[in-house]
Each structure stands twice: as C-alpha cells, then as structure tokens.
Amino acid sequence: MNATPFRVQDHRYGPTRWFEDFAVGETFYINSRTQTDGIFTLFQAASGDNHPIHYDVEFCKAHGHPGLLAHGLQVLIQTVAGGGLFPHLCNDSLLGFLEVSAKFLKPVYAGDTLYPLLEITEMRPNRHTGVMTLRATVHNQRSELVLEGEHKYLLKKRPTDSTVGSNTSSSVSA
Fold first, then answer.
1. CA 54 – CA 40 distance, rounded (Å)
2. Residue 124 in 3-state DSSP?
3. How much is the pTM?
4. pLDDT in tens, 16-74
C-alpha cells in the first residue's frame, strides 16, 4: 500500500483563504444550540454572575419571566466564529479578533434553540492586511432576531513571492 506520508500541516479543512479571497455577502453558519440548564450553570461558573434572574426559576416567575433568563453575554458567545468554519478557512491568514459589539433584542430562556450566523458586510484593505467586518445575528426557534451585532477581524493578504518563507506575522504592518 502506497499511502501518502502524514504531514501535520495537511491536517486541516482545506487551503488557507487570504483577505482578498473573501467577499461582502458571504455567510458563515454556526451550529445551532439549545440553551440547556447545563449551559446556564456553566456560564454562571465561568462568568461569576450570580444574579437570581439567571439561576432561580421562582425568582424569574415572580418577575414575569416564564423561566431562567439567559445572560446577554451567554447569548453573545453563541456567535463565536470558532463554532463554525470561518476560522478554519483562514488558518494562516487570521491575525486577530479586533472588536465585538451586540444589541440584545429579545429575551432568551432556558430551552430556547439559537441559530447564529456571521455575514461579511465590509472589507477594508490595508497594505499587507485587511479588516473584515461581519454582521452577527442570532435567531431563536420562533425565527425571532434576539441578537444583532458585529465582529471585526484582522487578516493577512496573500503573501507575495518575496514574503513566502519569511515570518509574515512579525513583519506585517496594517
């Protein structure tokens, strides 16, 4: 059997896409996720937030909510790009996550299923890099928009022949 030898650098979804390989309007789906009691508990442990509106069903009901109310940041983290293919497409070109913003439009409760999506809305090129802006949305199982915001990422442009083999991460300037 003539098997191709294993190479760590080949263990990825596909070839790297550089800044100029992306286009406004492209979308990146992120897996849907039901907000279970376990997710509420883990978020409380990670965040340290101990307000009863997020962890006491009776407190929630006494304040007009049908169940546990998700923390806004718990909803925002559903838009993390790593939950989908985007960061795997730009393995070698992604330099950093620059900025995030969000508006929380409707309540999210334990048991709701959330459907996050990222869509490229702006591509701002620089000399060797570019800033990509993505609109982040989260809908619930009733097709209601519960969160809208933005992510900004810094990506490298495709290396030229003179930069191939050089340490582009330390020599790149915006």
1. 7
2. strand
3. 0.85
4. 999 999 999 999 999 999 999 999 999 999 999 989 999 999 999 999 999 999 999 99
